[in-house]
Write a structure and sequence with these properties.
Rossmann fold; 9 helices; Peptidase_S8/S53_dom_sf; 4 domains; alpha+beta; protease; Alpha-Beta Plaits; 33 strands
Length: about 675
């Protein structure tokens, strides 16, 4: 594997560039952000990625330094128009309610700890105050590795403390209320212990089959039974797979009630178990969820929705691990609920600590899904579901497989209830209603249900959307993902308080419309413009390059570079000079008339070397000068084409850094076969 740096533009109201280093085993990284060759910002990070916010138009690239290497990304260009924030009319303001003064809903728990969030530098004051309230209480600082958060994240302004010793539940409410009166205390949370939290009761999970097969049975291919993958009442996923998007470049971090990690359908190499309870416990719930998302694409069993994504499994007490380890653009799915006496099953945002951890994740630009819960409860009722404000997460409801309407058991009505999927008849790994063999590693079910099944189904769907976006050179933020979900036309549950079911094939087309020019293989230049016309041929089965020569040595035009007609294709403004390549996302049409995109690299090559295509500087001692526009094709970057021949039109301008009025249109007809 070759270590490389991928760079993405983020889709959202806050313009940013995101870099991630692939296939690196370094432990520390130094990221440098450049705009038109000028160093703007540096950041040291323990993760192989970093998100920089940007405010100026131009071409950006990132240099990454480790102990053993220096890597440089391609360039991404921002136009002035892209830097004008656009707020969606239906977007909910991200203003959070005060966490103070809202009594904990956990009146009946006896296994809990106290978590306290304060402004930075409050330790001595808090310790004194705690000792005044109770001399027997031991205050411990919660250790958080803030190096995994970007410099602009608010977590750097706060500290966290915990009290884990056994306390009388009756005294705790007053203790927390007293601490929350202090101006430097953000909240004091009575947080239930979730270590080895029991999976939902048998009445809420699939019944086990009484039919047991012999251990020599060959597991059949159940994928045809996974009708939630189909169009219509499913999520329209199979056609997206056929176009080459199966989860590559995406990461899912899933929290659940244990996993049978040696299940036969989990051995493809993309499933990583960070932590799971002992398998002497019932681990069917997490096993079923994992199959929905990440089961291998093989000739038996089931196929995970995002089977090419990196999948990380965590047990029910591992939220803090996820907060530390998750990266911008990751999909986090929290597939657990908490049962409150005399109320029912509720999502984990009812806990101040969980709400705050989720808010830290979404501020980090991690996309968070969590089960709305199976209680038939209206979550807009603040007496049922405490509202601490918008955490940025998305609540998942469940629908009926036969009509798409809200399933009777699904909670509903929260302003974050934006997405739903099947809450019955889900075919996946684990349990045993479809196949029961000795042990736990070859069983399958066709009755996984509730928000338990809907949550991983939606996580897989969103991972495909992120995968497709990153293949297009952009990354979806939590804000952008929410707006995308709202665009789904699978709205059978409209008005029922569980949001929309994702039509993945439709939504990837919307992503394309956001980042690609409106037409493929179309020339935007009129004949009267006097455009130059070139044909350029590239091979689809090998890495190769073709060039077009431009010669200004006998003209008055100096300092010329090449820019694209459409902002979404590549750089649309000149820069002085930057070594390297520019990324080109070219819409194309294949032999059957289908639209796709080809990822190319373009550079201006002259006597001084290889530069981004929009570099204006002439070679030393040669002004005006001559240069080649070099267009290169990489097999690795275009595996999604499947070897199918295609063609497209790349409209360009030759511009001068000196003469603003010089604007020569160039049509490049690109044939890839």
């Amino acid at each position: 594997m070759t270590t490389e740096v991928k760079i993405y533009k983020t889709l959202g109201s806050t313009p940013a560039v995101y870099a991630e280093v692939l296939d690196s085993d370094a432990t520390q990284y130094e990221f440098e952000l450049y705009l038109n060759r000028s160093l703007l910002e540096k950041a040291k990070h323990s993760h192989p990625n970093y998100l920089f916010r940007v405010k100026d138009s131009g071409s950006y690239y990132i240099v990454v330094k480790t102990d053993s290497s220096v890597l440089q990304s391609d360039c991404v260009a921002f136009s002035a128009n892209e830097l004008r924030p656009k707020k969606h009319a239906a977007e909910k303001d991200q203003v959070t309610n005060k966490l103070k003064g809202i009594k904990s809903i956990f009146d009946d728990i006896n296994k809990f700890y106290i978590e306290i969030k304060t402004k930075k530098g409050s330790h001595s004051k808090l310790a004194d105050e705690v000792s005044k309230l109770s001399a027997d209480i031991t205050l411990k600082e919660k250790v958080i590795d803030t190096s995994t958060f970007p410099a602009w994240h608010s977590i750097h302004d706060y500290e966290y403390y915990q009290i884990t010793q056994l306390l009388d539940r009756l005294d705790v409410d007053d203790f927390c209320a007293q601490l929350e009166k202090l101006d430097y205390v953000i909240f004091c949370s009575i947080t239930p212990l979730t270590e080895n939290l029991p999976s939902p009761l048998a009445s809420e999970t699939p019944d086990k089959s009484d039919v047991q097969s012999d251990d020599t049975t060959v597991t059949p291919d159940f994928s045809a039974l996974q009708t939630y993958l189909d169009e219509g009442l499913g999520m329209n996923i199979r056609s997206v797979w056929q176009r080459g998007t199966t989860g590559q470049l995406a990461t899912i971090r899933h929290l659940d009630y244990g996993i049978y990690k040696n299940h036969e359908d989990f051995q493809e190499g993309n499933i990583h178990v960070v932590n799971s309870r002992d398998e002497s416990n019932d681990c069917n719930h997490g096993t079923a969820s994992t199959g929905c998302i990440a089961a291998g694409n093989n000739s038996f069993g089931v196929i995970g929705i995002a089977h090419s994504a990196a999948f990380y499994f965590y047990d029910t007490d591992d939220l803090d691990k996820i907060v530390q380890q998750a990266n911008p653009g990751d999909i986090v799915s929290l597939d657990i609920q908490y049962t409150i006496a005399n109320i029912g099953n509720l999502p984990m945002i009812i806990s101040k600590s969980w709400w705050d951890a989720i808010k830290n994740l979404t501020e980090k630009q991690v996309i968070v899904l969590l089960a709305a819960g199976n209680g038939s409860l209206d979550l807009s009722d603040k007496n049922i579901c405490r509202d601490y404000g918008d955490s940025g997460a998305i609540l998942v409801g469940s629908c009926n497989s036969h009509n798409g309407d809200r399933r009777y058991s699904s909670n509903y009505g929260h302003y974050a209830s934006l997405i739903n999927s099947w809450g019955d008849s889900v075919v996946t790994t684990g349990y045993s209603s479809l196949q029961k063999l000795p042990g736990n590693n070859r069983n399958y079910t066709n009755t996984y249900s509730g928000t338990s099944s809907a949550t991983p189904l939606c996580a897989g769907a969103l991972a495909l959307l992120q995968s497709h976006a990153k293949q297009r050179g952009v990354m979806l933020t939590p804000e952008a993902m929410k707006l995308l979900i709202e665009s789904s036309d699978y709205n059978e549950a409209a008005g029922k308080g569980i949001g929309k079911r994702p039509n993945v094939a439709q939504l990837v087309k919307i992503i394309d419309s956001m980042v690609l020019p409106p037409l493929a293989n179309v020339n935007p230049f009129p004949v009267s413009s006097g455009y130059l016309n070139y044909n350029l041929h590239l091979k689809i089965n090998k890495d190769n390059e073709a060039k077009i020569h431009f010669d200004y040595r006998f003209s008055d035009i100096i300092d010329t570079g090449v820019v694209v007609y459409y902002d979404s294709v590549g750089p649309s403004e000149l820069e002085w000079y930057t070594y390297g390549y520019s990324k080109i996302n070219l819409p194309v049409i294949d032999e059957d008339g289908n639209t796709n995109v080809v990822y190319l690299k373009a550079s201006k090559v002259n006597a001084a070397g290889r530069f981004t295509m929009n570099s204006a500087a002439d070679a030393a001692d040669e002004s005006p000068g001559a240069f080649d526009l070099a267009i290169s094709f990489s097999v690795k970057d275009n595996q999604h084409l499947g070897g199918t021949a295609c063609k497209g039109v790349l409209p360009l301008y030759i511009k001068s850094d000196v003469y603003d009025e010089y604007n020569l249109p160039v049509r490049v007809n690109i044939f890839i076969n």
